């Protein structure tokens, strides 16, 4: 949270203010890939933006004309980000909650997306970050009635940074298979990361 809030203080309400470094186009690519998880779903699906930051995903949903199809809610642990998001979108429901401490009676949603939640590990070791990712993803999946999406930095790259969470495919797929038999890994959208969809068994 401290890292993200420093970014917000430095850059304000833009893509760099939530920790992304490349371009708004890259941020939009992440939003598109996250939302492609819901393709084929009926209109009016509920979606929780877990780690919503400045609610840029909601801005994208409105910009591309999906506002009538998706019932958006946001969640964050940062009062600073939540204050910003609520000031921009007073009619949207935003939750302040830390599921590792208390789920605060958080309701369930059709879909949960975790965009950028596991990109930065700062000074944590890989094993520490792996445990954090497993615990939080498992709790978030309990709130998803249909599916969950998360992204992390790829190991299939020509560089790695010590402060980023380069999640091994084997760790991602092993844990996804514990949650459900139905999951998919997306490594096809041109960024140095990948996105995993995990769907409820049917």
Describe the protein.
- The chain is an alpha/beta fold.
- It has a single domain (2-199), classed as Rossmann fold, CATH 3.40.50.150.
- The chain has helices at residues 2-11, 24-35, 56-63, 79-88, 126-141, 169-179, and strands spanning 45-50, 70-76, 93-96, 109-114, 144-153, 182-186, 193-199.
- It has a 7-stranded mixed β-sheet with strand order 3-2-1-4-5-7-6, sandwiched between helices.
- α5 (126-141) links the parallel β4 (109-114) and β5.
- The mean pLDDT is 90.
Question: What's the arrangement of secondary structure elements?
Answer:
Layout: H1 2-11, H2 24-35, E1 45-50, H3 56-63, E2 70-76, H4 79-88, E3 93-96, E4 109-114, H5 126-141, E5 144-153, H6 169-179, E6 182-186, E7 193-199
Parallel strand pairs: 1-2, 1-4, 2-3, 4-5
Antiparallel strand pairs: 5-7, 6-7
Give short descriptive properties of this protein:
alpha/beta; 6 helices; Rossmann fold; 202 residues; 7-stranded mixed sheet
